[in-house]
Every structure is written in C-alpha cells, then in structure tokens.
Amino acid sequence: MSLLIQRPNRQAHTLCDYHCVCSSATEEETTMASKRVLGFPIGIESAALIAVLIALINLSQSIFAEREPERPSSFEPFNVSYDHRALIIDGRRRMLVSAGIHYPRATPEVGIVVVVCHKRLDPCGVWIQLQALQQNIDCVVSEFSYKTASKRDSVRLVWKWILEWIVQEPMWPDLIAKSKEGGADVIQSYAFWNGHEPVRGQYNFEGNYDIVKFVKLVGAKGLYFHFRIGPYVCAEWNFGGFPVWLRDIPGIEFRTDNVPFKKEMQRFVKKMVDLMKQEMLFSWQGGPIILLQIENEYGNIEGSFGQRGKDYVKWAARMAVGLGAGVPWVMCRQTDAPENIIDACNGFYCDGFRPNSYKKPALWTEDWNGWYASWGGTVPHRPVQDNAFAVARFFQHGGSFQNYYMPIRTSGGPFYTTSYDYDAPIDEFGLLRQPKWGHLKDLHAAIKLCEPALVSVNNSPQYKRLGPKQEAHVYNGPEYLNSNQSRNEIACSAFLANIDERNTVSVTFRGRAYTLPPWSVSILPDCENVAFNTAKVSAQISVKSIEPGLSQPSDSVRSEELLLQNRDSSISVDWKTMKEPVGAWSESNFTVHGVLEHLNVTKDTSDYLWYITRVPLFQNCFKFVASLAQLLTFGRWVKVAQPVDLQLGDNELAILSGTVGLQNYGAFLEKDGAGFRGRIKLAGLKSGDIDLSASLWTYQVGLKGEFMNVYAPDQQESVNWVDLSSNSISSTLTWYQLPHSASYFDATDGIDPVALDFGSMGKGQAWVNGHNIGRFWSLVAPKDGCQETCDYRGAYNENKCAKNCGKLTQKWYHVPRSWLKSSDNLLVIFEETGGNPLGISMNLHYTRTICGSVSESDYPPLHRWIRQSFIHGRVSISGTTPEMQLRCDDGHVISDIVFASYGTPLGSCQHFSTGHCHTDSSVSVVSNIKRLVNCLWACHMRMRAAEPMDLHQYRLVWEGTTVLLRSRMRRLDLIRVDTLLKRWLLKQVAHCPQTQASFSYDGTGNRCSTYKLVVLPPLLYCCVCQIDSSSW
C-alpha cells in the first residue's frame, strides 16, 4: 500500500486546515489497462481464466544434463573491468549499491502454482508482486481454451511473460525484489563449501543450496551478482564454511602455504567457477556475475603464518585469475592484495579506506549495518542515521561500490543465536525494517542522482573546508567524459558533511546558507538544492508485532474478510513424548583408553557425544565428590566442577558433550576442537583425587532419536511415542512430538511470516515437517547495558544502542511458510535441560503499527528529481512539495486510525498527542485511507486567508494499525478447475522430459489446499492455489 501526502505552494498561509483526496482507477480504466499489460483479450461481461503451470522443483542435475544451459534473459553479454575510480560495466563507470543475501539462509520457491484470474474488480484486492521464474521448463503451450457456463473464452499465454511473473511466498525472489526496490544494483553472497560438498566429492546444488537458481533469479530481476567464493566465509557460519572432513586430510593446515589445503581449495573454487561458466552466468556470457572474491578477511590472521601467509596470498590470487572467469576478483581486508586483485574494505565505516594501488577503485564489501547476537547477550541495534552517514561519507570520499551485510537467519556458528537478523534493512522474516529500509532507499536514490557527476571526476573531488568539523566535496570534473558528453553539460554534485557529534551548524556553500545537523551529510545532486540529509529521517516508522496466529481446521468455512489475530495461540495440549536414553544406545559405540576430542569422534554428524566410564568405589572412601574437567564453552576453555552422586560399588559416569556450532573465525581452525581438554578427575575422596583421563571410556556419537529420524514425517510409525504426562514436563533429554492428528497445528491463514515461541523451553533443537528450524536456548540477557535512548551521533560499535536487556536473547523462531502445509504439520522438539512444551505457541510476525510525518521543512521527495540521462547528467527538480509515503506489508490494509493531527503535534510514534495547534478534522480526513489498497492518497492543505505564520513549524503526523486482508473466495471462482483445467495441466506436464506429475486437488472445486488473492498489474484479480508437488 502506498500513501502520498503533499503540501501546497510555499507562498500560501494555512491555519491548521487541509483537504485530502483519494483517487483510484475506474473499472473501465482498469479493464483497458489489463488488456494492454497482459496482452490478451479480457471480456467485459465474462470472467477471463488463465492457468499457468509452473514446476518449482529441485530436480537433480541429471534431469537437465542433456539440455543447453539457459541464458538469463535480462542481459546481453557485456564486459566488466575497472579503473582507479570505479567498476566499468559495459564501457561505463558505475556507482553501485549492493545487498548481501546468503542463499542457504533463506528458502527458494517450491510447489506448483495455478493462477485463476477473473475480471471482478473487488475493492479489497491485494497487491502482491509476482516474482521471476528461472527453471528450465519448456512445456507450457501458448494458448488454452476452456468453457464456462455462459460462453467460451480464449486466453493467450505469453511464455516470456510467464518467465517474468510468478506468485511467491518464500523467500529468495521476495528478498531480491525488495532489495531492488530499496535501490540495490547488485546482490552479493558467499559460496558455502560445507553445504555444497558435505562429503568429499559429493556435491549438493539442490534446495537452499541451488546457487544456480539463485543467481538466475538475481539476473531475471535485472540485478548484478557478486559471488564471494572464498571458500572461507566466516559469516558466523558453522566452521567458517569449511567442511569438517577437510581437517582429517593428512598434513593439512588451513589458509596457508600448505599443499593439501591448496589442492582442496583450488578444486572447490574451480568447481564453482566452472559451474557458473556452464550455466552462462558470467557477464560476458549474458549473465549477472560482475565480480568474484577469493579468500575472505585473510589480512586479519595473515601475520599468524609469517612468510607462508604472504606466499599463500600470492598463490590464491594467481590461482583465481588463472581460472579464466573473465570478471575482476576481490580480496577484502587484504592490504597486500596482488596487483591484479582489488583489495576492499569491511567495517562499520570505510570513508577513510584507500586501496593499496592507485589503479584500483574503493570497494566496500561488507557494510556492517548491525551486528549478530550471542546466546545470553543483548540484541545489537545500529541507528539508521549513523548507517546512512557512513554510506554517504564513503561515496563522498571517492567510494564506488558498497554492500550491506544482510544475511537474514540461521547463523549456525559457535554460540550465536539462530536468528541472524543483523538489524538489516530487511529482517529475518523478510519484512522491511522501517525506517531503516525507507531512509536508505532515499539515500540510494540521492546517490544515483549524483552518479553522472561522481563518475565524471578522474582525480580527487574539489575539497572545501566549511568549518572546524565541516567540509564539502564537489564532483564537477571535466577530466572523464562519457561519450557524446560536452563539457558544458557536465553535472555537478556536492556532499556537505558535519562530523561534529553534538552541534547543528550553519555553513555557507557557493553563496548559499545550509543547516547541517550533527553527525550528518547533506547531498546536493545539483550543487544547490539539498535532496537528502542522513540525519533527517522522513521514512515511515513501522512497529512489528508478533501476535497469536489463527489455526483453523482445513475444512472450516472462511467467511471473514479480515484476518483478526486475537485468539489464544497455544499450539496444543496433545503432546506426545519419548525419553532419550542416557549413555550407549547402539552397537556403533566404541571403547578406548583416554579422553578423545569431541570433533575427532563425531565429525560433526551430530552436536552430541556421550563419554561413558565406570568408577568402582569402596566403603568409607569419600566424603563429597565432584567431577572436575576442562571444556570449551563460548569459545573459551574453562574449568568445570560438577557435583556427582556416587554409590558404593561400580558407578557408571556418563557425560553428554554438546556443541553449539563450530568455531568460525581465526587462524588454525583445523586445530580447534570441542568437548573436553586436559584431565577429568573425581575430587573430594578421602583417599585423594581419582584421575579418569586414562580410564577406559566408551563413546557414543549422537542421540538415538536423531539416528531414528524421529523428526521425519515418514518415520513416525516406527517411533514409540507415548502421551505426555505431568511428570514428563520439564524433564531433561526428552523428545516431544506434536502429531499430525493435532489440528491445532494447521498452518495459519494469510501470508504473514510464522514464528514459534519457545520461551517456555530450555535448550535444544526443533524440526517442522522434517526441516530443522535451528537451536533454541532460553538464556536471559543482562539487565544492564541498554540505553534508554539511542543517540545516533558518534562512532558506532556493536555495544552501542543495544536492546533487549533483561529479556530472552531469542524467543521467536522463524518457520518459513514453504515448510508448512495447510494442515497436519509435524513439530518435533528435543529438549536437553528441561522445558514446558505446553507453553509453545505459533504466532504471526507483521507490521502492526505504521507512523508517518511530513512538514513544510521536509525535503522534496526523491522522485521529483529528474536526471536527463546517464550521459547528459544534469539533474533538476520538478517540484518542491514534501510528501509522506506509507506502505503496509504485502496483503495488509489500514484497519484503524489511532492518531492524526495537523498542526503542532507532540511525542513520537505510539506516543503522539496534540499540541497547541490542531486541526479537528484530522482523523476524519485521514480515515479515507482505511481499507484502501494500492491507492495514491494525496493530501493538499486548503489555503485560507489568515494571519501570516511560519509554515515550517507545522506538520502532519499519522498513526494507524494494519490488518491482513482476507480473500473472499467463492465456489464460482474455482468451478470446473478440477476437471477441464486439471486435465489440461496433466496433458501439458506429460510433455516435460523425464518428468511425471499428479495433482492433489479438492474435487469439490470449493478451495485449494492453500490460496491467496493477488492482483496482476493493473488490478486483474486472481485466486492463487498451491497444489501438492510431492510427486515431482
């Protein structure tokens, strides 16, 4: 949803009065526009039915092995090079903004989608952007005819159009689209070696690891791709991305001049480069890949290896370039990067960064727009004003490529929370974080307006000192001209910075006065008018809510129009349970003398390892007993003393060692281990301590429930589940199952992201329908360390502006909707320390409250600026009217107006109050936006003859709540779909090579297994049905 509020001519005067008008397309206009956009006739009196069969399937490579690789259609082949100023793409210098999306941390699309469209112009439609398809499907016909009760219509399916639009819930296409909308030119990701090669020589490019599909989705959106192959990634990822089997290669030393390591590294890097070539994904092949990276932040540890480290850097560069990828290579945080490798910056700020050679441009490969959280710690937060300040300063000082580190979820690294939200512009649920996303979007638009001027300067920009802590950089150089650009057409753009952390300062620049807030940068695309200031946030504020989700049985009648999220969300009381045995449970255990290192035994096939030994004790030999050992916790080896209860005679001592992710950072990772180190002994005996280190120990890898796959839907019949009793609650080492028959765990309606509340649990892991949603651990952050107010001014670090003090570090755990079925979902939990599953609830995560503000002193919106062209780069502004733009989450509408006031309102979002001047009609006028979706709402202040006053002190503020719109599906919408349409679909699928398909469909024609109402541009309403694709 989009809300636009405009103010009138600045010369007029107003006395707290205004008028708002809502405009939307008429039915006739919409119908005609639909004809133009969709390219096929739509009857005025009858419904138009279009069926699009899309197989979103993770087929093995063998299915398409005989096909020619499909070339991404968004690009013609182009070359990429660079000079000292910027990357040069297709012959032009470019200023580029990038968004980092780690593809394994999100979910690709799944299933078969049937779209049933009709011309009904329902005023409560939902605009859902359709996403791009990148599968090798060639079996959709160009025309389909069907018969309705009234007449016969013909609908033409344009295959190119089908490739460009597809309904998506999860998560790759949505993240890519939102990144592009936010101003990104590039998507960046690592390659995750341990995911792609879990067993040496056995590769995995399916599901979340389908890197080819991900890159093609990026290209289909018209974005470039930066592939950071590494293969070391850090990324708070398990073992830094290295497969654990790598450490078992004889004589290997990671990331140094070591022959076994270099051999394995080259083999994997070559595999990834060759795969990209085979799929024609490099720029010179017409693909989106413009940049590659070898190694990752090696400069941080290079000194640990001495000369061997320096030799390794040179080898890695030669090896990478020698693979013939045809695009530039990068090393980040590598001041001694060889001449043919661009060294890049990572950090919170990079405005002071300079490459190690004049011939290289300044690239910022990781802009840390937040930080990660560790179990038991606070949650980091970085104010958007500071993030924008850092980015603007980078481009002000000659930067040309900047990437937001935006990894989404599931860290997997040592003692890091499952949430890897990172306070990024898009949160781990895939929702926009406002105002961060909106403010940075405006920043990117301002930088793009300056791009012709930024690339025109061949040397340093003009510098002018404006004050003791104020400076200007002016880009207006004639040295570098794009073709056909005359000198008098050169654009001029300027950055005015105030690095004073406390004081607002007035400066004079080119004869005009400018006010600079503290710790801010003003951007002047035309060297005269301010388009953006990093400290003045005009983007909406969105307050997220996690509320109880509805869980209706799949056969219930859905007559409500709005999804009201107000019911008890407890999943069920009908839990089943199974105790995990203590100690050895299978014949796979083994016994040896001595204490073995955890990882050498488990090979990371499980978090868990049992250490079991026997201790014989005789009468009167002990007064108190404690087991003493040294174990690894939170990255440090610590001494642990644990009281034990022993009896006379033989005692079995069983110790469960568990990892919480493997070390991801530092030198000598191959030597890092887990579990116990040093001696294990019994202390407190009258006869003295007993050293157990050399005793006979039995080792059992993993849990019995793990190796039985008790979390897999197809294994439930083989598990001896019993009903949960009161004495089983809060017990340790216990499996819990919410069975298929529990209708309380039907998937919630709508499209809002789903979260499970594990606040009542202790520590363990959870699976939904066989998918691991991650580790949970209910540790509480310290009560101290959070500030009442977050001051954006001054240099940021990960401890500044922390939040969530005194609360669980993580309570909510994201469950991607693509993992859920409409009903009968299976939830399995392993609890280590004791928890109460009756307290688990399923909740919906969405933007509940939206606040907006606009005043006479605001800058004009960025879309009012006009750039004639990239070549003729002068910019101008077509109007100076400030605007307020509001948007809901996908599928939501404004349900209530909580507050509205034009005049001198007080307070902040969720705490507004009226000031000394207030327009009484504010709420009634603003209420016009309720229930309007995708409607441009223009608010014009009505002029009245009144006493003169300063318009700049008046503003309009608005606060509203949102709710998810429910589609009103009728039997007519799906009538005969299960007959004529299904037969047609099956007939077409039969032409797909090496593929068989069958459909599970509600034969009554009443409803699909899941559905939602969508709108194809502009306002063609569709019912979208998700059909079971398990047979593909």
TrEMBL record:
Gene Ontology molecular function, alphabetical: beta-galactosidase activity
The record ties this protein, via CDD domains, to: Gal_Rha_Lectin_BGal
Q: Start and end of every Glycoside hydrolase 35 catalytic domain?
A: 168-446
Question: Please, one GO biological process term?
Answer: carbohydrate metabolic process
Reaction equations catalysed: Hydrolysis of terminal non-reducing beta-D-galactose residues in beta-D-galactosides
Which branch of life, at top level? Eukaryota
| Record keywords, A-Z | Glycosidase, Hydrolase, Membrane, Signal, Transmembrane, Transmembrane helix
In this protein, which residues make up the domain named Beta-galactosidase beta-sandwich?
488-537
Q: What is its EC number?
A: 3.2.1.23
**Domain Beta-galactosidase galactose-binding: start-end pairs:** 743-825
Span-the-membrane segments of this chain are 37-57
Record-stated family: Belongs to the glycosyl hydrolase 35 family.
Spell out the protein name for this chain. Answer: Beta-galactosidase
